[in-house]
């Protein structure tokens, strides 16, 4: 990581913190993390991609060292942040690779700012129809809010021990960024989490660029079902599906080699 640059810019009215590889002459790819993660949660993937791409790993608003949560937490805002980042860094139609919340953010950018994006790769994004997308009503904390609150009561060493025990197949490089992201994330994201509900079908229908949808197994808590995956492909003229068996929601962490193979093959084809 010695050749990576850490910086902060003001875009879309907020401070966005990010890491970037040094060679700006290569095609750019922006890695968009999921909720409670941070930009550095991509570094295991970035080590491979940086040979061929300028890799940019921003912290989403309310995460890592970025701010902006006070001005809203909806996919439109997250997408506008990414669009602002692309424009501020003068990037020429970068690729977007997003996990979960980051995948929906990438989908929103491609739908609403098509001129800014070359192709998108979506790692188990929350493609859930609204009738199924139920969250708790009222002011009662969500299960994820309670989960995060429990994590924040632990010491860093306790968090490391816990994530290693619960995810023994992850690469060692995954654990510390995951822990630090949980320490840094603003718990208030879960007070606004319902703002992230949005019709993925409306977005998908407006995406013209190439898309790679990467899915795991629902029995292991992956979100995208086989039926939803097939529905999604009907919207995209240049859509591809990569199902990686034996993985859950964290596909790249559960099977790093298969994830890298799928993503690099797609990137080299578009």
From TrEMBL:
Stretches assigned to the AB hydrolase-1 domain: 27-125
The protein, known as: AB hydrolase-1 domain-containing protein
InterPro entries: AB_hydrolase_1, AB_hydrolase_fold, Carboxylesterase_BioH
Organism this protein belongs to: Dictyobacter kobayashii
Organism lineage: Bacteria, Bacillati, Chloroflexota, Ktedonobacteria, Ktedonobacterales
